[in-house]
Design a protein that fits this description.
Order of helices and strands: HHHHHHHHHHEEHEEEEEEEE
Radius of gyration: 35 Å
Mean pLDDT: 80
Strand content: 25-35%
Number of strands: 10
Low-confidence stretches: 258-293
Shape: elongated
């Protein structure tokens, strides 16, 4: 006890190395006299853990803190040691032992499950608050994985506490270098709670700007530059003095100067940080709004997917050339529908595919009734150029295959296999949050061979169609 007291006094006075030596001597003496597992040795392990964490030896520090709590579960953190991270981690490890005593009901999101998730959330939050620029975030990553696994196991995926865990995961991803849609944690958090916001103690200029960028996209389906959401009143993260300009220097991950508080003052001193209520809504948070200038809505950027249904009204001219008979020409009107799927491989260039089905009817010169049904499909490469807010002019090429079965009166029928060549041009307009309307004209040329049931006559057919196309698609 005497050597522990001396070690503590040295550490409080700022002589960390001297304090570590005295604590090490105390542990050696305890083992020498058979007191290595005695309650009095708990404080020795705590002091050694404090020094290990001060030297960025996280794993060693945690092990020593756990050893101290094994020997004395009611051990208190010395009031003279001011460092926030060590004190916060010790409080979390101590609280964890108390929570683990409460049993969980499998697959039930009850009070015990929420309390354990809240504890894990506070642990992750502590790592994010105090591990600002160091590469010792493995504990944070493991905590996120453990918390999300527990949430899924206890059926708590739709609770606000899970949204907060996803939000903290997004902060971790942001610090690891992820940007825009790679910040999956923030997107998952907004799916559960669209109004969620960053805790005040994690707010920096860059973090808030990129979170607001993702949040704005989630609600409005448009990307604005992250700089649009910068708040100059928030502190700026840095790694070197160069990042801070002339009048500030980089200290503990933040730019500080005559008008800036240090990172330690920003974090404060005291017990482990917690987030009341298990969610991240902060009433003191300054509202950030995008610039007043309205951005054009564009759907033809790389990565956009378009899926929809098109309806077509068609006027066509058919020409059938027989081996042994005269050529027959007919004119017809048709109605058909098609399913369309497209993906923009790059800005403005889309590659799509379609499946179609329809019917037609006409009256040939001999007044014989003509009807036909057909199916087909093909590929549609094309270009789409924005021409205004939420509108684009498009040009597509068409290459496909068609199969038709036709009847002439009640006596003859034919089956036709055709190659389809053509194109389409028109406009696409955003008419809803994620809905596109297509209006276009489509000329197509069908070249095929007919097989008639009567006498098994073979013939070559060429068909020219002009389609008026109206369709609706979902895009993302």
């Amino acid at each position: 006890e005497h050597k522990n007291k001396e070690a503590l006094e040295e550490m409080v006075g700022g002589f960390i190395l001297k304090g570590w030596r005295r604590a090490k001597d105390a542990l050696i003496d305890a083992k020498k006299h058979g007191c290595g597992e005695h309650k009095v040795t708990a404080m020795t392990h705590l002091l050694l853990g404090y020094v290990a964490l001060s030297a960025d030896k996280n794993a060693n520090g945690r092990d020593l803190f756990n050893k101290a709590l094994d020997l004395d579960p009611n051990l208190s953190y010395p009031s003279g040691l001011k460092e926030s991270y060590q004190k916060a981690l010790f409080a979390i490890l101590k609280k964890s032992r108390q929570i683990q005593k409460t049993p969980l009901t499998p697959e039930v999101c009850n009070k015990a499950a929420i309390e354990r998730l809240r504890h894990l959330m506070n642990e992750i939050f502590t790592y994010l608050v105090y591990d600002l620029v160091y590469d010792r975030m493995s504990e944070c990553k493991a905590g996120i994985k453990q918390a999300l696994a527990l949430s899924k196991k206890q059926k708590c995926e739709k609770r606000n506490i899970t949204a907060m865990i996803y939000l903290l995961k997004g902060v971790f991803e942001f610090r690891a270098g992820a940007r825009t849609l790679r910040l999956q944690g923030w997107i998952d958090a907004l799916k559960i709670n669209p109004k969620i916001s960053l805790p005040k103690r994690l707010q920096t200029r860059d973090t808030v700007a990129h979170f607001e960028q993702v949040k704005h996209f989630f609600h409005n389906y448009e990307w604005l530059p992250a700089k649009s959401f910068y708040d100059e009143n928030l502190k700026t993260e840095c790694r070197t003095d160069v990042d801070c300009g002339r009048d500030k220097v980089c200290r503990e991950g933040y730019c500080i100067g005559s008008k800036r508080r240090t990172a330690g003052e920003e974090h404060g001193r005291g017990a482990a940080p917690t987030i009341a209520g298990g969610h991240a809504d902060s009433p003191n948070r300054k509202s950030l709004k995008p610039p007043d200038k309205k951005k054009k809505r564009v759907f033809s950027n790389k990565g956009t997917v378009e899926f929809g249904l098109n309806g077509k009204f068609r006027y066509g001219k058919h020409s059938t050339e027989f081996e042994d008979y005269d050529e027959i020409e007919t004119k017809s009107v048709q109605f058909s529908g098609e399913l369309y799927l497209g993906y923009f491989l790059s800005d403005y260039f889309v590659f799509g595919a379609f499946i179609m089905s329809g019917a037609s009817w006409s009256n040939p010169a001999e007044s014989t009734k003509y009807t036909s049904v057909y199916i087909g499909g093909g590929i549609v490469p094309g270009l789409a150029f924005p021409v205004g807010d939420g509108a684009a002019f498009y040009v597509d090429g068409i290459l496909g295959y068609g199969y038709a079965k036709s009847e002439f009166g009640s006596d003859s029928s034919a089956k036709t296999n055709s190659v389809v060549l053509g194109g389409e041009s028109g406009v696409k307009i955003i008419v809803g949050r994620k809905i596109l309307m297509r209006i276009g004209l489509r000329p197509t040329y069908w070249i095929g061979k007919n097989k008639w049931d009567e006498h098994y006559t073979k013939a070559r057919s060429t068909d020219l169609y002009f389609d008026f196309v109206v369709g609706f698609s979902y895009w993302k």
